[in-house]
Amino acid sequence: MEIKAIVGEVSGWKADAVVVNLFEGVKTPGGATGAIDAALGGAISQLIADGEIKGKSSEVTIIHTLGKLAAPRVAVAGLGKAADFDLDRVRRVSADVCRTLKRAGVKQAATIVHGAGIGGLAVEQASQALVEGAILGLYGFRRHLSKTEEGDLETLTLIERDPAKLPALERGISTGRILADATSFARDLINEPSNFMTPPDLAAKAEEVAQTYGLSCQIFEREDIERLGMGGVLGVAKGSAQPPKFIVLSHKGTITGRPAVGLVGKGVCFDSGGISIKPEAGMGDMRNDMAGGATVIAALRALAALKSPLSVTAIVPAVENMPSGTALKPGDVVRFMNGKTAEIHSTDAEGRLVLADGLSYAVQQGLSPIVDVATLTGGIVTALGNLVTGVFSKHQDLVDKISRAGAQAGEKVWPLPLYDEYNEIIKGDYADLKNSGGRAATSITAALFLSNFVGETPWLHMDIAGTVRTDKDRGYHVKFATGVGVRTLTNFVLNLAEEYQSK
């Protein structure tokens, strides 16, 4: 979809449809909506009086102009209550409107920038949010469909009356597209069936990103992984015919005297549970167990495109967890890159095994701070559901920074405790640790397991098992993979760069 900005009046713009908006409770529309209403002889006011247009969030009303405007249709988007209006509402409104227009067969649409007028939002941030919502709301994964879908929205024009605001509008469009395209890229990786997204396939995608965006990329093969002593990665990969890959993707910024940020993503391309095999129901969804890896690769893509001044490295241990005669077994012991050992109580607690080596490598490389992202535990879904990502850290400043970055992206996070007393649950009997302490506080003990591999390095863990997918279209989230974390991590690194540069 082409997205552009122009200076003009929405009421005079020729397109298949033009978009205006209305806050809930407003009886007499003003601004651009008022101008459209006047041109239509009070049609919008009449629909408000009749109760057909209420301005509620997610409400989109199509009005046929019958030759009274250059555009044959007007879409009135409900913004909800003014007191609740924010940038994430702009994203959701944009997504709802664009999907409605697409269903109506609209090819070219023009819109005012929601929130940049009476909403009180800065025009650059509002246009960025609008573009994110439009692209993410129209996302679809159709690569394996034999029938090509028709009727995509082809052009979206953002209209602004004030010429002085045009540069800010264009900056917002550019940033919004970069972030939304990176998130869509992560969705594509996660949505791929596992026979099309093996560890070698994921490594190849990382190499493509590196080539396109000027990143450096190293792919460690099994022999390299053995040489580095990564027993967690090797142990999980033992049962699969697919070879493990250890992916290192790096962006070099201009800030000196600061270590590169480390982003570590779980890359389990399919998780059968191994010998501790999962139930049949829902096992097909375990292709999304590499979502953490997809997230950090996509974040590197966005940061490179945005020319982050801070260096950052993404690390993805990529494996399959399969049952076979060579697979890791309950009762086995593995030794990790940093020398620590763990006894295996469940082969279905495999993500923490590969992340242990990924985190150890990040520490060895001097990366700081380190953030890992993983679909790690079902317990986080029980605790927080599908709307909030659980975060874990003993560094409150990192919790605050990731919370701010998430709020900027419209992605909610919530901290859970890492009290030392929980360590007793994962203390090993015949090794340093055990990889599963059972159902009690499972998300906390999984995070504590990971904490054994970061030493004194500032570190934060994000458990996205609940937020990685949605079962239905909701705002700018489209059924299945959400791409959660890409925009949060990008904001986190950019905010950190800004902090460093201000000192």
Report on the architecture of this protein:
This protein is α/β, with parallel strands linked by helices. 35% of the residues lie in helices and 19% in strands. The chain has two domains: 2-161, Leucine Aminopeptidase, subunit E, domain 1 (3-Layer(aba) Sandwich), CATH 3.40.220.10; 180-501, Aminopeptidase (3-Layer(aba) Sandwich). It has helices spanning 31-39, 43-49, 87-103, 123-137, 166-191, 199-213, 222-227, 231-237, 291-305, 351-364, 379-384, 396-409, 442-451, 486-501, and strands at residues 2-7, 17-22, 60-64, 73-78, 108-112, 155-160, 216-220, 245-251, 261-265, 267-271, 312-321, 333-335, 341-343, 370-374, 389-392, 413-415, 433-434, 459-463, 469-470, 480-481. The strands form four sheets. Strands 7, 8, 9, 10, 11, 14, 15, 16 and 18 form a nine-stranded mixed beta sheet that branches. Strand 12 (333-335) and strand 13 form a beta hairpin. Helix 3 crosses helix 4 (123-137) and helix 10 (351-364) runs parallel beside helix 13. The two termini are 40 Å apart. The mean pLDDT is 96.
